[in-house]
Design goal:
Elements lengths: L10 E4 L7 H4 L5 E6 L3 H4 L2 H8 L4 E5 L8 H13 L4 E6 L1 H13 L7 H5 L10 E5 L11 E6 L4 E6 L7 E4 L9 H19 L7 H23 L4 H14 L13 H13 L3 H15 L5 H10 L10 H14 L13 H14 L11 H12 L4
Parallel strand pairs: 1-8, 2-3, 2-4, 4-5, 5-8
Antiparallel strand pairs: 6-7
This protein binds 5,6-dihydroxy-NADP and zinc ion (ZN).
Length: 385
């Protein structure tokens, strides 16, 4: 196990009715900006509950944050927050609204060009405090200090992180997720599953406790993912799904272990260039990447095969574990091959060119070079059999 520091100050308010506790959490603040997406919170009643909880405060609203939140949109929110001297932001939505809010709160006190925060890794020292009401379990953004921001004009999508953008609190009420469309729930299961794999499926590192945590989350997602898809209003299933997603990316399972993240980096480009949902990109890239990197990941793949999929005897192979993984994604209704989205060889060329231009070396061994990225994308172009 490597040396590590672990810090996570996010207060979680979990369960039905917890939105009512928000007033106690925002006592010191005066002017609150509610940030939200494109209207789901108005249709499912969450908006009303949140507005009630802010009674007595000066409230300003910014709606319209889109999936894969855009710099262009967020700049408008930053202007609004500055003009009104907002001292607290409440993000109400999924990963996109929460990530967008992280960019807003970091940018308001920032003196330079906010895009530098994501494109040049400029350090964020200060941010306006913020809280979240999570409506889509998937990203873990509600309990981590990372965000991913897109820029429409240049088709770029970059991540940034800073301890300054940990939420002060996050409300996790499973009942607010009942209104999610099925495909968003499926995307969420895939995203959380992929987050665990990125931090687990690398090479052995004497990380017994982290491995068991990771395997526990994976098995829980395999168990409840399909069930919560079919029974959207079963609160126990939703609660388990919701907490699994949060635990998958709040820093706990990455303590002291090597991490991969290449699937996410390639996936972000598929979203930036071709507009695929984040979870969808992961379902496509993960099986292809594991197949390409099977030799390097052999030991952990065999552990995963045995402990997560209970494969044994002749079936205890990396190939079978990868097959089970892809089958699982497909069982949720998520397509796993590029041609199923009408994407062909010519569409991936700009993506490969971008990796060549950046010269990135990805993965836990930094051996996913641009030529390997191309091989992975070619595998994803093969039809599913
Ligand atoms: O815009 P609204 O109306 O809110 O609708 C959203 C959106 O259309 C809808 N939705 C959310 N909650 C709902 C609901 N519809 C009905 N009922 C509800 N309760 O769902 C759609 C998708 O929402 P979005 O927030 O985009 O999805 P998700 O949570 O999957 O977030 C994806 C973004 O997070 C980034 C991704 O790259 C992507 O930009 N990620 C952030 C991470 C982080 N901060 O740690 C890590 C992840 O790996 C990921 O990269
Ligand atoms: Zn993700």
């Amino acid at each position: 196990m490597k040396n590590f520091e672990f810090y996570n100050p996010v207060k979680i308010l979990f369960g039905e009715g917890q939105i009512d506790k928000i007033p106690q959490e925002i006592l010191p603040y005066h002017t609150i900006l509610i940030a939200y997406g494109r209207g789901s919170i108005k249709r499912n009643g969450v908006y009303e509950k949140v507005v009630n909880a802010l009674n007595g405060k000066k409230v300003i609203e910014f709606g319209g944050i889109e999936p894969n939140p855009r710099y262009e949109t967020l700049m408008k929110a930053i202007k609004l927050a500055r003009e009104n001297n907002v001292d607290f932001v409440l993000a109400v939505g999924g990963g996109s609204v929460i990530d967008g809010t992280k960019f807003i709160v970091a940018s308001v006190p920032f003196e330079g060009e906010p895009w530098d925060i994501v494109s040049k890794d400029v350090k964020v020292e200060n941010a306006i405090p913020f809280g979240t009401v999570l409506t889509l379990p998937a990203t873990g953004s509600e309990m981590n200090a990372g965000a991913v921001i897109s820029r429409d004009a240049t088709k770029e999508k970059y991540a940034f992180s800073s301890p300054a953008v940990f939420p002060k609190f996050s409300v996790l009420d499973p009942t607010v997720t009942y209104s999610l469309p099925k495909h968003q729930v499926a995307n969420g299961v895939v995203d959380a599953f992929a987050h665990v794999l990125e931090q687990y499926l690398t090479y052995p590192s004497n990380s017994t406790i982290q491995d068991r945590f990771a395997e526990g989350i994976l098995q829980t997602l395999i168990e409840v993912g399909p069930k919560t898809l079919e029974n959207p209003t079963d609160n126990n299933l939703r609660a388990t799904f919701m907490w699994s997603c949060t635990m998958a990316l709040n820093g706990l399972i990455s303590t002291g272990v090597p991490t991969d993240w290449a699937t996410h980096m390639i996936g972000h480009e598929l979203t930036a260039f071709l507009g695929l949902d984040h979870g969808v990109t992961l379902a496509i890239i993960y099986p292809a990447l594991l197949t390409e990197m099977a030799e390097f990941k052999k030991e952990k793949l065999l552990q995963y095969a045995s402990r997560v999929w209970y494969l044994s005897g002749n079936n205890l192979t990396p190939e079978r574990a990868i097959e089970e993984t892809e089958k699982f994604f497909r069982s949720l209704g998520v397509k796993t091959r590029l041609p199923e989205h009408g994407i062909s060889h010519t569409d991936i060329k700009p993506i490969v060119d971008r990796f060549v231009a950046r010269g990135w070396k990805l993965g836990e061994n930094q051996n996913i070079t641009p030529d390997v990225v191309e091989k992975i994308l070619r595998r994803a172009l093969e039809p599913y059999r």
